[in-house]
């Protein structure tokens, strides 16, 4: 069984009665040294199932392991094989990577190993795209997105995919204006690209809808303190506003770190008076 598995750290066995750990491939030593190795030649092991390329990313990120150089080289040379994977398998494995520990590292590994260029070219395009330092001292767009992904709560696929997708429109709207770098309309383009990507990955319609909504709304928060009360209350009362609020917090933590608008919005939400039901509804009028 061990000879057919992918990584040494994934070929550990336990005797359920004695608790004895059986380690036929050196997985315990690799865990101690924080390294990720395949069982046998990496090129041959990855060629057996290209999904192992994505499992490589997940294991390395979640367990904080460093792939050995020969595994990195093999992954880069065989990354193109991931194009033959079914959309369902890709979406499922990426979702596992994006909701667990080290999810920001997982996204970075996808780009560095060349897998993003094959499966998520819109994500790969964010690498190296400059941002205005006064708003994004953390660096380029990909760095920001990785930090946002780390800042969203774990085990929430919708928030994770929102983090990955919310700024994919920035490379296509990059512009050096007289005052600073600008990304005019990146929210709309991000929403369009997010819809296309998630359809390509055959993601559930419910997830696509919430991700696209966040892409369209995420830059709206900056204007919330200056909104007219009626307009602000209308947005605060939408059923999805708490989700937008949680994502806004992660977006801030992934860049400048200031949470003043977040705290303002949270206080405004808590201070909303109970909404009175209408005396007459549409069904009453029809009746």
3D architecture notes:
The chain has 287 residues and is mainly α. Helix content is 54%, strand content 4%. The chain contains 17 helices and 6 strands. It has helices at 27-32, 42-48, 51-62, 69-78, 87-99, 103-112, 115-119, 121-124, 141-151, 157-165, 170-173, 186-200, 205-217, 229-236, 241-253, 260-270, 282-286, and strands at residues 13-14, 21-22, 35-36, 66-67, 175-176, 181-182. A hairpin with a 6-residue loop joins strand 1 and strand 2. It is globular. The relative contact order is 0.08.
Mind sketching the topology for me?
Blueprint lengths: L12 E2 L6 E2 L4 H6 L2 E2 L5 H7 L2 H12 L3 E2 L1 H10 L8 H13 L3 H10 L2 H5 L1 H4 L16 H11 L5 H9 L4 H4 L1 E2 L4 E2 L3 H15 L4 H13 L11 H8 L4 H13 L6 H11 L11 H5 L1
Parallel strand pairs: 3-4
Antiparallel strand pairs: 1-2, 5-6
Contiguous low-pLDDT stretches (5 residues minimum) are none
Global shape: globular
Biggest sheet, in brief? Answer: 2 strands, antiparallel
Average of pLDDT:
94
Q: What is the H/E order?
A: EEHEHHEHHHHHHHHEEHHHHHH
Strand content: under 5%
Could you tell me the number of beta strands? 6
Helices and strands: which structural class?
mainly alpha
What fraction, in percent, of the residue positions are helical? Answer: 40-55%
